[in-house]
């Protein structure tokens, strides 16, 4: 016996067809004949069909039924089709309702107007049944594709939020122990040098500190990349000096270059604007990364940083920073892998020199955010040229330099001030600090740092203890000079503790202490009442200076 072959329909297509067949279609036309023709053509398709007798009735039913498709006559009493179309487009998104205009106009002007005002398609009068079916079917297919796209976009946004939450948690979990590792290493190094410990001891501590620093750089790179991909990277646009930025960067990377016996040069091509409007922190980040790469891949020779103004007649002016090295260079094939996350020119490069490949990816995206780009020219075994451009902002009334400004006076004054700060033995002498921290290791470390700087330290193991300690101090008629508040603690977290303390009128300085470094963490801490914010791993000098400044400004306010 012969059995006819059954056509197998993929399940996804089957489900899609079911959705299409359940679609709601509203026919809005003042002609009963036209309504009948359209309804007769579409009924076999399985749609749920409604009708309205004029524009007013149609708009009311659009609001009540919210159909997928509206077949809308152009010329009707009380309210014409274009008026209704405008209302639909003002109140409903494209993926919610698609409008097909039904018109006798054949001169093209009415059809063009319909598309301009947001119609998806049009059906001419008269039209065949097959044409009516095809146009409605296409509109339904398009609207469901738009809905699927919106759903996928929402899923992607939810996934991105989950990723951000994971990275924030990862940051906290890694930064918290790194605070103890790097902090105690620094303390041991200071003590070892004071007591003239053996060289092996000092070398071992230096190795721990250096590798801990590499780990922190990796964590920071991952967090930066995540912020950029999520569109949440905080970028400023402030007045800054290209010359100053270059001089600061050269000073920061000088030690690394000298350690490899490399020469560093800065070359300024004039005229150069005295100021631009951009983000100096992000520009420094780009340049330090690019010069760091040049140092890494160069064994002998010179690394040069060239700075020049690019001005084209019809383009916005840009500053271009070009890093020229005499390193290993790259082939054309190797350059294709640049600027991709977690990739380098080739695997052998990664094995020999280390690194994740995140640095160049971040640099390129930062340059894009700052209105520029990064390009590269390279020749294998002959070195590379990386050029980073950033937008300058308006240069109207900005002085154009034809020689370098003398900034030595400012930097020398800063050096003297820094020396005074760092050589002061007990900058926190007489200060009473409340440390709210639940981690025993970090309690010991931070307490040691504060006591070493001369402070008296009171400990609280959670937010509730911190709140009670602050209240008791208020009842005695005094305040702590500073409260250091860890934001993730048991019983009562730092956010709630700070809010409670402020609610009862506590006015003393509070510094939030957190291992979170994601976008908005600082703002969230300030919003609950903190005066400042410091992230783990803690920079010893930064912490002491912040406490000193806040406590002194608080004393001035009270006096």
Automatic annotation (TrEMBL):
SMART domains: HATPase_c, HisKA, REC. Residues 169-394 form the Histidine kinase domain. This is histidine kinase. It comes from Gimesia chilikensis. It comes from the Bacteria. The modification 4-aspartylphosphate is found at residues 73, 486. Its EC number is 2.7.13.3. One of its GO terms (molecular function) is phosphorelay sensor kinase activity.
């Amino acid at each position: 016996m012969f059995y006819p072959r059954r056509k197998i329909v993929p399940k996804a297509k089957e489900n899609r067809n079911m959705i299409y067949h359940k679609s709601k279609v509203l026919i809005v036309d003042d002609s009963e004949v036209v309504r009948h023709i359209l309804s007769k053509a579409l009924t076999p398709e399985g749609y749920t069909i409604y009708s309205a007798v004029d524009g007013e009735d149609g708009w009311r039913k659009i609001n009540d039924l919210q159909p997928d498709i509206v077949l809308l006559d152009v010329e009707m009493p009380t309210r014409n089709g274009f008026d209704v179309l405008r209302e639909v487009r003002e109140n409903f998104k494209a993926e919610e309702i698609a409008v097909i205009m039904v018109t006798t106009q054949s001169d093209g002007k009415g059809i063009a107007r319909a598309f301009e005002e947001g119609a998806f398609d049009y059906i001419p009068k008269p039209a065949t049944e097959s044409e009516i079916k095809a146009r409605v079917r296409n509109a339904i297919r398009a609207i469901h594709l738009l809905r699927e796209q919106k759903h996928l976009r929402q899923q992607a946004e939810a996934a991105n939020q989950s990723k951000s939450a994971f990275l924030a948690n990862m940051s906290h979990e890694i930064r918290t122990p790194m605070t103890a590792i790097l902090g105690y290493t620094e303390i041991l190094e200071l003590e070892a040098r004071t007591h003239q410990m053996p060289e092996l001891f000092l070398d071992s501590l230096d190795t721990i500190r250096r590798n801990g620093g590499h780990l922190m750089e990796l964590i920071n790179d991952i967090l930066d990349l995540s912020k950029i991909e999520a569109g949440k990277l905080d970028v400023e646009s402030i007045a800054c000096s290209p010359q100053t930025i270059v001089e600061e960067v050269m000073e920061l990377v000088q030690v690394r270059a000298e350690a490899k016996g490399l020469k560093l040069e800065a070359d300024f091509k004039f005229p150069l604007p005295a100021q631009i409007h951009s983000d100096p922190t992000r520009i420094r980040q780009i340049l330090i990364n690019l010069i760091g790469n040049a140092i890494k891949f160069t064994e002998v020779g010179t690394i040069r940083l060239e700075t020049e103004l690019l001005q084209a007649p019809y383009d916005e002016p840009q500053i271009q920073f070009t890093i020229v090295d005499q390193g290993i260079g790259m082939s054309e094939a190797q350059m294709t892998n640049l600027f991709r996350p977690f990739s380098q020119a080739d695997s052998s490069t990664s094995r020999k020199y280390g690194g994740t490949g995140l640095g160049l990816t971040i640099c390129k995206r930062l340059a894009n955010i700052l209105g520029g780009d990064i390009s590269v020219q390279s020749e294998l075994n002959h070195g590379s040229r990386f050029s980073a451009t950033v937008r300058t902002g308006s240069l109207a009334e900005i002085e154009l330099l034809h020689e370098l400004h003398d900034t030595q006076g400012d930097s020398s004054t800063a050096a003297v001030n820094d020396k005074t700060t760092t050589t002061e033995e007990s900058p926190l002498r007489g200060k009473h600090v409340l440390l709210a921290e639940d981690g025993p290791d970090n309690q010991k470390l931070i307490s040691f740092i504060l006591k070493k700087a001369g402070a008296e330290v009171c400990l609280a193991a959670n937010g509730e203890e911190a709140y009670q300690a602050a209240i008791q101090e208020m009842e005695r008629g005094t305040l702590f000079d500073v409260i250091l508040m860890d934001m993730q603690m048991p019983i009562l977290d730092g956010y709630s503790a700070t809010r409670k303390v402020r609610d009862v009128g506590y006015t003393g300085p509070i510094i939030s202490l957190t291992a979170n470094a994601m976008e908005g963490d600082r703002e969230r801490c300030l919003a609950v009442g903190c005066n400042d914010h410091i992230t783990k791993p803690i920079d010893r000098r930064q912490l002491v200076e912040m406490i000193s400044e806040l406590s002194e400004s608080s004393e001035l306010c009270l006096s």
